[in-house]
């Protein structure tokens, strides 16, 4: 077939799910792309010479097959939901390398599921300092962790530093058993979970033991210069203005700094201003710093979480 572009899916069960009942998924893809899809054995082909359409086709099939392989045939999102999420990324040329995170050694490729998530990945690649704000479940921390692992395993940095402010909620670090590492670990559990979703837990543990992945309370950053590292400050809305300034000025050579937080969930005492809120205002005109705001439409953790976030957003606007 002239100008044929073919994708091979080796697993027949995944291929069947990608095609959908009575090829329903393929029909949706044909409708969106304006091309005909031909099946032969374990191959899916289109007769299309446009590189843009080929990239779109590959992006959609890769996303759908990865989703099925990762979550199982029963739990995977439908073809229509996936295609809608891919189109909602607003990717102009559908460059899969540009709008996905491929972690060396991992069988999983991370794709943006919304337009703002695609924008966030772009910002990670373009800027050395990125502020990502948004509600729970919008993917800001997970994408920051995935991009940090990509940089580490591509040998573009030598370490990952995970930082969180310790805001006590009825329990002090001093009452928790163990050394400093034991005390800080519960606060950093979400970051560990994100890492374990990208690479094997054994690899995460090995990196920690070798000092390649370091975890630290924000207070331990004072006086340090962070070179050749990806630094993630999570739950940044709970930093004070002084802490945020101290943290931001730790940035050294060949470092990437990702600051994530949700300005609607500030746990600081009422009389103390959030360092994240202040930083977003006073640094907004610095070209080298990117600020990406995600919202309720970007929540991908679960449909229920998305509805909860939107309900709170609607209540706030009334």
UniProtKB/TrEMBL annotation:
<dbReference type="InterPro" id="IPR027417">
    <property type="entry name" value="P-loop_NTPase"/>
</dbReference>
<keyword id="KW-0547">Nucleotide-binding</keyword>
<comment type="similarity">
    <text>Belongs to the PhoH family.</text>
</comment>
<dbReference type="Pfam" id="PF02562">
    <property type="entry name" value="PhoH"/>
</dbReference>
<dbReference type="GO" id="GO:0005524">
    <property type="term" value="F:ATP binding"/>
</dbReference>
<keyword id="KW-0963">Cytoplasm</keyword>
<dbReference type="InterPro" id="IPR003714">
    <property type="entry name" value="PhoH"/>
</dbReference>
<keyword id="KW-0067">ATP-binding</keyword>
<protein>
    <recommendedName>
        <fullName>PhoH-like protein</fullName>
    </recommendedName>
</protein>
<dbReference type="InterPro" id="IPR051451">
    <property type="entry name" value="PhoH2-like"/>
</dbReference>
<feature type="domain" description="PhoH-like protein">
    <location>
        <begin position="109"/>
        <end position="313"/>
    </location>
</feature>
<dbReference type="GO" id="GO:0005829">
    <property type="term" value="C:cytosol"/>
</dbReference>
């Amino acid at each position: 077939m002239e100008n044929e572009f073919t994708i091979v899916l080796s697993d027949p069960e995944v291929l069947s799910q990608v095609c959908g009942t009575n090829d329903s998924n393929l029909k949706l893809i044909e409708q969106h792309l304006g091309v005909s899809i031909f099946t032969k054995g374990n191959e899916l082909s289109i007769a299309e010479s446009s590189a843009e359409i080929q990239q779109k086709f590959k992006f959609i099939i890769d996303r759908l097959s990865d989703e099925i392989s990762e979550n199982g045939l029963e739990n995977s999102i439908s073809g229509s939901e996936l295609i809608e999420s891919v189109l909602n990324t607003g990717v102009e040329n559908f460059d899969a390398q540009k709008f996905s995170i491929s972690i060396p050694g991992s069988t999983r490729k991370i794709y943006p599921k919304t337009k703002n998530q695609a924008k966030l990945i772009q910002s990670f690649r373009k800027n050395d300092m990125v502020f990502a704000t948004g509600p729970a479940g919008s993917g800001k921390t997970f994408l920051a962790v995935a991009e940090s692992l990509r940089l580490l395993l591509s040998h573009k940095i030598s370490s990952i530093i995970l930082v969180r402010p310790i805001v006590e909620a009825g329990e002090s670090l001093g009452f928790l058993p163990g050394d400093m590492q034991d005390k800080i670990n519960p606060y950093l559990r979400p970051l560990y979970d994100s890492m374990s979703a990208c690479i094997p837990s054994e690899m995460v543990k090995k990196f920690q033991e070798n000092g390649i992945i370091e975890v630290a309370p924000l207070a331990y950053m004072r006086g340090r210069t962070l070179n050749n590292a990806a630094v993630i400050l999570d739950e940044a809305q709970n930093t004070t203005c002084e802490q945020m300034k101290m943290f931001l000025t730790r940035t050294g050579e060949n470092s990437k700094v990702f600051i994530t937080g949700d300005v609607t969930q500030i746990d600081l005492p009422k009389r103390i201003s959030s360092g994240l809120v202040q930083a977003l205002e006073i640094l907004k005109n610095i070209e080298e710093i990117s600020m990406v705001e995600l919202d309720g439409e970007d929540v991908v953790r679960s449909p229920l979480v998305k509805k909860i976030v939107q309900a709170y957003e609607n209540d706030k606007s009334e």
